[in-house]
Amino acid sequence: MNLKQLSHMLSLSQTTVSRALNGYPEVNEETRRRVMDAAKRHGYRPNPSARRLATGKTGMIGYVLPTGTSVDIDPHFVEFLSGLGDYARSHELDLVLSPADADDQETTYRRIVANRQVDAVYISSPRPADRRVALVNTLGIPFIVHGRSEGFDFDYPFTDIDNEGAFHEAARLLVQLGHRRLALINGDDRETFAIHRERGVRRALAASGLTLGERHVCSVVMTEENGYRATRRLLEQGDAPTAIACSSLIMALGVVRAVRDLGLTIPGDLSLIAHDDVFPWLKPENFSVPLSTTRSSIRLAGARVAERLAARISGLEEGARGEVWPVDLVVRGSVAGAPA
Amino acid sequence: MNLKQLSHMLSLSQTTVSRALNGYPEVNEETRRRVMDAAKRHGYRPNPSARRLATGKTGMIGYVLPTGTSVDIDPHFVEFLSGLGDYARSHELDLVLSPADADDQETTYRRIVANRQVDAVYISSPRPADRRVALVNTLGIPFIVHGRSEGFDFDYPFTDIDNEGAFHEAARLLVQLGHRRLALINGDDRETFAIHRERGVRRALAASGLTLGERHVCSVVMTEENGYRATRRLLEQGDAPTAIACSSLIMALGVVRAVRDLGLTIPGDLSLIAHDDVFPWLKPENFSVPLSTTRSSIRLAGARVAERLAARISGLEEGARGEVWPVDLVVRGSVAGAPA
DNA sequence: CAGAAAGGCCAAAGCGCTTTGAGAGACTTT
DNA sequence: AAAGTCTCTCAAAGCGCTTTGGCCTTTCTG
Q1: Residue A340: predicted pLDDT
Q2: Does the distance separating the beta carbons of B250 and A281 come in below 8 Å?
Q3: Nearest residue of A to residue B97, measured between CA atoms
Q4: Does residue A68 belong to the interface with chain B, where contact is any CB pair within 8 Å?
Q5: Chain C: bases < 7 Å from a protein Cβ
Q6: Among A253, A274, A281, A309, which Cα is nearest to A124's?
């Protein structure tokens, strides 16, 4: 059942039927009802391929997926996707993942824009002066950055959480509890979120005349193993920290294991606060010692990004507004006063 | 730069240019070279929207993504996706995720097929007599099932691992080590993989005249918390098992925590084997007691599924061949003889 | 009551590609 | 030399939608 057939059986032109269906004003309400009715009865669904050829609109949002045998997709992605998908569903949007060589995403971005394969894209895990952001900005496709970049001479729309504020609060709490030697086990410090978190910790320390020692900050891919290694290194050196802020729950697993291996305890010997993106399958309150966290649902962020993308596609949102969500500090058993 | 312009500057018809580019035989090799050359020089890329309208081919593979506020996407998905994406990239395929109400995926499958939105689809986490499999089979779109369904009067193409064999081996090892009371902490037993794993365990036990007690098998969503709860329940009841087979590494985290909470040890009081899908961010050898596992890279499976989908799209593969991959049993410190 | 404005509808021209059916030449075959 | 084959190329007809520009009525204005 295509438009031609439908208009034929209604004895109307394709023009009128198309307009009736798409809500254009220049069609009689009575006629529109007839058309709508017939369309529903015959299960007419406009062919998207034809529509996109005519309009350029695809009803899809895009994401360039860095791949490669040695490239791992972040497990956070799946939670973000849950939120994104949930919103997208309610708006009949599909998501197209375009796999790209992790070292050459530009080609793929250019392709999906030139080919009009999607109506909008989002970018995640941005770095300072991220080339992808600059690229999509010049390419002129609607986009939202999940996270933040820095150092451009233009503004861009983003949704981010207050990473600096979160880690500032976390560190401030630890300092208040008497800790003087903090350490930060961070994610990849080429990414903005990690930079912001470090900044937050430093600012809190500075407020009390303290500093974050060179050897007290590590930047690693966020795996359990790396959390373990970083902690061993931190705790086995002289000048061991009495408190650790950690950028992910998965790394925190490794921290806990290392502490246990060393015969130490949390929070007696070490206080620990980690960032929690709220996974359904791993919860901070279920750590052997309930884990204090800075909490922000990455799933909600996914939904929000989808919402903004949809708004931009339909022209309801424009401009370069960035939004920063506050982060909850949730105190549980893993923090205590500094050991004497 | 479109076909019209290109053919114009070559003083050829669109037909000839199109054929030259698409490798049709009825065009002079000399002409073809000229065309290819000009196309490359001017960066001509056929407009996919137009092409798909004309041919119905999209260059995309589809996946219907069950969503909903209370629906969690399995973290395994991201690893599978890594493999799938890596292969898809090398073949210029995109992946489109169509979010659907988890309780009504049929509508979405029908839509993407009717609209010719993708060239092929894959189905994951199938259940026995899975309606999705029956549906795509009748809809006639190329597909591959990742996993297996059961109980159809037709065959279908799938790629699965030998879940039954893997858990059979695992259980057999435990029995050989003298364990008489095994327990199985399984995933959702409405899914085929879980059924097969249980079958494997039962078969191994039966071979030694043992059985899997009603209260010794649990079927839960695979989270750390559920692993913990299941283990507490198992170990605190009379008739506590001396060995556990567990369907996921994440649940195994909970098992380990529960054992520790109860003041017991692995493998002294309890032997543990878990299934490992090979995550980059959580490795069995890094458990406080290195974890024995049945190991199979879900990432490789993703790549294989993509490969087969590509083959089916291009007509290189047809028929309903199913393939079953063997699973490695990797013995580490978490198993030992049954306690006396 | 003439002229303008608005309302409702349509034919046809795209969108950019593939594919059908046919034709012009060159080259064999009888 | 007429007829039949190949080889290469083309014009034109789709694919199924949206959108432009225009036409015919009807209704409003002065």
Answers
A1: 83
A2: yes
A3: A95
A4: yes
A5: 7-21
A6: A309
**Cβ within 8 Å of residue B112, ≥6 positions away:** B62, B64, B96, B98, B118, B121
- Pick one of 3.80.30.20, 3.40.50.2300, 3.40.50.720, 3.40.190.10 as the CATH number of B163-296: 3.40.50.2300
Using CA atoms, how far apart are residues B311 and A148, in angstroms rounded to an integer?
A: 40
Closest nucleotide (CA of B17 to C1')?
Answer: D9
CA distance B77 to A88: 18
Mean pLDDT of A19-48: 93
- Return mean pLDDT, chain A: 96
* Rounded-to-10 torsion of CA A35, A37, A41, A42: 10
Supply the pLDDT for residue B340: 83
Other CB atoms within a 10 A radius of the CB of residue A46 amount to 16
Interface with B, mutate which of A52, A80, A84, A86 (most B CBs under 10 A): A86
Largest Cα–Cα distance of chain A, in whole Å?
Answer: 89
Task: Tell which B residues from 250 to 269 touch A, by Cβ distance under 8 Å.
Answer: 250, 253-254, 257, 260-261
User: Which fold does the domain A163-297 belong to in CATH?
Assistant: Rossmann fold (3.40.50)
